[in-house]
Amino acid sequence: MRNQKRLLALSFVSLLLFPGLCLYWTIYDIVGDSNRWNGTPIPAGNVEGSSDISPATESFESLDFGGFDNETGRSFDGRLIVPNLIHYIRFNKTTFTFVDYVCLRSAYIQQKPERIYLHTNVDVNNLTGRYWKWIQSEPDLYRRIVIQPIELPSEIFGQPLSDGWRLYHGSDIARIRTMMKYGGIYLDNDVYVVQNLDKYRKYEIAMGWDEGQFLGSQVIIAHHDARFLPLWLDTYQQYHADLWYYNAGERPTTEILHRQPELMHRVKWRFGVHMLMQDLYDSMEWPDWRLNQDTIHLLINHRSYLDPHFKEYPDFNDRNIQHYPYMFGQLARLVLPKRPSSATVRRYWNSTTVALDGIVNGQRSPDPTHD
Ligand SMILES: *[C@@H]1O[C@H](CO)[C@@H](O)[C@H](O)[C@H]1NC(C)=O
Ligand SMILES: *[C@@H]1O[C@H](CO)[C@@H](O)[C@H](O)[C@H]1NC(C)=O
Ligand SMILES: *[C@@H]1O[C@H](CO)[C@@H](O)[C@H](O)[C@H]1NC(C)=O
Ligand SMILES: *[C@@H]1O[C@H](CO)[C@@H](O)[C@H](O)[C@H]1NC(C)=O
Fold this sequence. Notes:
Mean pLDDT: 81
Strand content: 5-15%
Order of helices and strands: HHHEEEEHEHHEEEHEEEEHHEHHEHHH
Bound molecules: 2-acetamido-2-deoxy-beta-D-glucopyranose
């Protein structure tokens, strides 16, 4: 194991010295991923520490990113550098909403992660609800789920978190720490995954950052040694409890990235963390959404004041989604599993199985890595 690490470190150095090799390695890299997918099965519904599962593949390797190229990225030994782990943070959430479920399933279908970590302060026995049962009833999905206990932060660098926003600011902090511990793919609970994200797994860190905007922290794809992460956490030395997005987005953008843009692989549009309210909830067509987006932030907590049809559909579920006419309905229906108990779902599936098989088997249209 140690020898292997040394070899990896050597490969890294040689790649830095001989950039001509990179092209070869990057191509090789695309093939590299398939093996892991057939790796050792993970026991269902793991609670980390309480079972004997081994650590996930390559999540604990250390890398020195000095001089890293944020445009070309890098692979090691034919492998992508960011582990194929998905992380969700769920503070005080006992119930899986329909939207949580849709998003989790979109990530499962498109990304086929080795594990899906649910970092939560809720006891596993207290997780409830129809859609949690649905997750448990699907063996291949459920065996990837790891319930990872985590405490809701109460303070940061000696400063108490905002009373009203503790769950949110706590999650902002926890996602940085989680990425620094494991690396992988962090997703907000309302991020819908449109395409496989492997093309970003060769970067130190990739995040949504639109022109003239602050960084979007809803999607983070990073190695745990990414240099930006500790700098970001450190901005909480000046924590602003009264400002919603100061430490999560504003300060890391103005204080770190404006000075050192090379620390980030900037994704301007494809992570869909910009304002897509109208496309999702007020339009029946969204040409090329699949071509142009890799993920979409569903802005679910902002619907109550931004969605003109909110009163007709204050809540989504597997029944009303069948006739919900706007784009989000299409997105959701695409990732719902075949459920023999529901005639409507069955009818829908009878007509769309072919389309969905295309997604499941990874036959996607080619699309560019860069924005
Ligand atoms: C989180 O849940 C616990 C247990 O139900 C509760 O005591 C606490 O007040 C909740 N925290 C917040 C910030 O809502
Ligand atoms: C779980 O639920 C029980 C009651 O149903 C409650 O006493 C306990 O505090 C809950 N635990 C957590 C961690 O939420
Ligand atoms: C990479 O870093 C440079 C600064 O060195 C910056 O100008 C460029 O926009 C960055 N590229 C991406 C894709 O983030
Ligand atoms: C769906 O197709 C199956 C056969 O593939 C058929 O038995 C069933 O009746 C169909 N369901 C509906 C609702 O059309």
